Amino acid sequence: MQTGVVKFFNETKGFGFVVDDASGQEIFVHVTGLNGIKIRENDHIQYDVVEGRKGLNAVNVKKI
């Protein structure tokens, strides 16, 4: 699993972005990848990365 910090997350629209700790790359995160947890800006999270339609997506997200 990779780790990162939530840069932005819009609860109303159900999506946001994570900055990966290792690469500094921004990765898209959608509410469907959260497994029922809530995330907010600056939360540290763990996640798996999968290739989505428009780029990398964070899935199986867990707070750390």
Automatic annotation (TrEMBL):
* All copies of domain CSD, residue ranges: 1-63
| SMART domains (alphabetical) | CSP (SM00357)
**Domain of life here?**
Bacteria
Membrane-traversing stretches: none
Give the matching CDD domains.
CSP_CDS
Q: Which UniProt keywords apply?
A: Cytoplasm
Write one Pfam family the protein is assigned to. CSD
Q: Where in the cell is it found?
A: Cytoplasm
Q: Does the keyword Ion transport apply?
A: no
State what protein this is by name. Cold shock protein ScoF
- The species is Emticicia aquatica
